[in-house]
Amino acid sequence: MTELFGIPLPALLGQLLLGLVNGSFYAMLSLGLAVIFGLLGVVNFAHGAMYMAGAFVAWMGLTYFGLSYWLMLLVAPLLVGAFGVLVERTMLRRLYKLDPIYGLLLTFGITLLVEGVFRSFFGVSGQPYTVPEQLSGATNLGFMILPNYRAWVVVASLAVCFATWWVIERTKLGAYLRAGTENPRLVQAFGVNVPLLVMLTYGFGVALAAFAGVLAAPVLQVSPLMGSNLIIVVFAVVVIGGMGSIGGSILTGLGLGVIEGFTRVFWAEASSTVVFVIMAIVLLLRPAGLFGKEK
Amino acid sequence: MTATTTRVDRAAQRPGASGAPVASRGRAPRIERRTLGYLALLAFFAVLPLAGAYPIFVMKGLAFALFACAFNLLLGFTGLLSFGHAAFFGLAAYSTGHAMKVWALPMPLGILAGTAAAALLGLVVGWLAIRRSGIYFSMITLALSQMLYFIFLQAPFTGGEDGLQGVPRGSFFGISLADDTTLYYVTLGIVAAAFWLIDRTVHSPFGQVLKAIRENEPRAVSLGYDVARFKLLAFVLSAALSGLAGSLKTNVLGFATLTDALWTTSGAVILMTLVGGMGTMTGPLLGAFLVVALENKVGDAGDWLKGVTGIEWFGTLGESVTVVTGLIFVICVLAFRRGIVGELGAWWAARRAK
Q: How many CB pairs under 8 A join A and B?
């Protein structure tokens, strides 16, 4: 069997793929955080809870109503996005003029609330979600066995990330969004409905988290705690990458996922802390983050 | 939105919280009144066990009150929102537990070990975190505390998921602390001394500089203050006192667990400060007792609601205190940002102004 650094190649590639899968989730979540932060100036702590809610909506759809994975891949982000719009309309909107820490505190409270409600109904143990049959099984590539579903997660996430990047950087709507990030008052004066834009942006960012949640459901177990564990790592990812650039968020997320995967191979105990260690190093060398701008 | 407007909005939000009225009304009589208030508070706590309060509960409340006051030194008086204070609380809880159980040190040395460990960690975390300000500061402290949590999860001396159980209470300069009442007065004395230290810090020239940094950091820089140094000092002090609180908690309850270092504990101390009133001296004290009581009593309240309304779900409320905590968080942020003591202070100031 081929070996690399004394590790069998298939095992190495398997961990690399798992790292890419995790990296895809990091990328989608940090992308949503960056878009929301850019326009709203709010660090959305509830992002993890929304991701968890997306996974649970998919699970409930399958378990209680027999709705397929593919349908839920569309429905769950819409439902969670609608909830996000509601949150923005009724609560977040009141805080824009205040210190940004209130946005963080509010979304932290929403996290506890959402997590607590799911916990009171489903407990803390994970619920399994079966891989949809079209994607079950694995493909033998000769040098490794590629589980189809994991490959799908990476491809789908990359496609969604790229589409988001394209909309923001290359379309008229994206131009409004970027302009709104720079100077909302001026954009409003030009006749763009900025509050609507803000509301939809929050809804979209949250829907992205829910989409990631549905993708994650068959890979990880669906549990009320899955979101808060992830969001803290994503915060570290965001600090490492800096929230200034869309492409930067995607690259940082994927890259850190891969590094985490490699760490799991060589020193498994450190895999849960490696992202935080990298964050500390980046803070020492480049405090603004890899893609951030010094203010 | 520029940095200046946010700061102005924030300053306008908490009149009376920044210590400004103290200066405008002449110092001497006001300070005396404050001291009298503290003495009354101390007397209240001193007679509490005689009035039949359960000492363990009050001591737990006192430990968390100190934790919240130490945290408030950073959030309320320096304007830094740390989302990782559980790391200091937890590290000290484990260090004290280890020192007293494995090394069999007496209580003062055990507590000192915990406090020193937390101060050292505070130095490292603070040194890293103050490189970024605002919301990034919060995210960095949260991430670093989570890292520590994972280390605790795997380290041999913490006992992993089981935690560190059966920590002896030890002795205080030769006096055995096995008796609840003895332990109560020792704990009260330590908390009161720490509270006095925080009060002295806040009302010292050093504290004034911290407030200046909170209100307008660029201005403080332009006045020639080494802002990073002041922030780091405040951070280490806050971490050390949070550690003291964690040490006391271990000493009182006899165990240290992973929950002490979990992010939910960081959230709880934020909630205590927010409910009581950030930037007030006594607010976090009140908030801590309210939150600790809530965690103990929410199950009973849920059962009562279940009995009254007949809705089965309320019965599960005790298991998910987080729902109630989250709700209070949301309400506080939306409608009640000054907290209980802050609102009372504002109401009092408005009445006097008439």
A: 138
